Amino acid sequence: MPPIVLEHATLLDGTIDERREGYHVVIEADRIREVSDTPVALQNAQRIDLGGKTLMPGLIDAHVHLIATSLNLGTLVNEPTSLTTARALRIAEGMLQRGFTTVRDAGGADWGLAAALDADLSPGPRVFFAGRALSQTGGHGDSRPRTWETDSCACCMNASQLSVIADGVPAVQHAAREELRRGATQIKIMGSGGVASPTDPVWNLQYSEDEIRAIVWEAFSWRTYVMAHAYTPEAIARCVRFGVRSIEHGNLLDADTAAVMAEHQAFLVPTLVTYEALHREGKQWGMPQVSIDKIKDVREAGLQAVEHAKAAGVSIGFGTDLLGETHHYESLEFSIRAQILSPFEIIRSATLVNADLLNHTGELGVIAPGAFADLLVVDGNPLDDLNLLQEQGKHLSLIMKGGKMYKQTLV
């Protein structure tokens, strides 16, 4: 395959708060080989003239659930995994067409799904997957109704594709090792109650210090990290102090806890759009009333949590956490955050910051030699109008992942 030269590009990434005109980018195989501010003389190259349009790195969504193909998660247990996977591949294709060339799956996706997308058996982003999230009995990953006996088979519980129940240090060690053996690129734990689970209030603290530290050590031994679902200041602070690197959601974060996060160099991955989507459509698509009733508690506080994180200097990633029928809201996260953050800060979250979170600094989220050729051409300037990154990819005239073009409408 000949090299590709993207000519007359205006560069925009998370490194500089401005666009840089007159650049030429050479792509060879799946990587960027050269970035030059002068024309590139290269024989036998495919040349694409961008005509000054914005060239930016592919977006990264650091909190998705590819196999959460229905808002009513309890229905997943009643359909064959082959059907779930087919639906997940359709969801993945939609993400790519919205410009998300990389995602981090926070519970449910496995090695097979990630490998299928990596092998381009179906169009979609590259996937960093946590496998099944670890939950204590009665925790956010325990979807069994109250009427089930405690000795009911946990492997048969609703939505078991998304999580696994493990209690006590030996059990959580085994569960973490099992997910790592299965190829997980990071481990996910449930550190507090949540919206989608039926029996735990949002303020519920989950997993003991010994259990969390044991899981963190198992991840460390594989040179990776732990991400934790956590809402309240107490849940967030204890997770971070016990070694968790990435806090998911964090809607009730306060200023003092944000300072703790900054001290421990932990990341915050807000997922504001999912609460808006659930507020709008949750009941319509069969989400249980008990979950809908919890939404208000966290929906209204999310923006303030982002404010606290920004003021404390916490690294803020970009995530969405959408489920089932609401995945089309993914890019609305840009507009919601724009109430607090500048367009550059939001773009930086979805590129450079998330690349750091994924431990792929310099390979993802930047336009630089040696980085993956994950690139978007935008019809306009996103620093002036974030809507250009919305509307289901309408304003993206080129989408490239790993040097392959999945959309190309340039003349």
Structure report:
This protein has helices spanning 81-97, 111-118, 169-181, 209-221, 233-241, 255-263, 272-281, 289-299, 302-312, 332-337, 343-357, and strands at 4-11, 20-28, 31-36, 46-49, 54-57, 59-64, 100-105, 126-129, 133-135, 163-165, 187-190, 226-230, 246-249, 267-269, 315-316, 375-378, 396-401, 404-408. The protein has 411 residues and is an alpha/beta fold. It folds into two domains: 4-58 and 363-408, Roll (Urease, subunit C, domain 1), CATH 2.30.40.10; 59-330, TIM Barrel (Alpha-Beta Barrel), CATH 3.20.20. Helix 2 links the parallel strand 7 (100-105) and strand 8 (126-129). This is Peptidase M38. One of its GO terms (molecular function) is hydrolase activity, acting on carbon-nitrogen (but not peptide) bonds. Pfam families: Amidohydro_1 (PF01979). Residues 54-402 form the Amidohydrolase-related domain.
What's the CATH topology name of the largest domain? TIM Barrel
CATH class of the largest domain: Alpha Beta
Q: What count of structural domains?
A: 2
Structural class from helices and strands? alpha/beta
CATH architectural grouping of the largest domain: Alpha-Beta Barrel
Radius of gyration, in Å, reads 21 Å
Describe this protein with a few key phrases.
about 30% helix; about 400 residues; globular; Urease, subunit C, domain 1; alpha/beta; 2 domains; 11 helices; eight-stranded mixed sheet; TIM Barrel
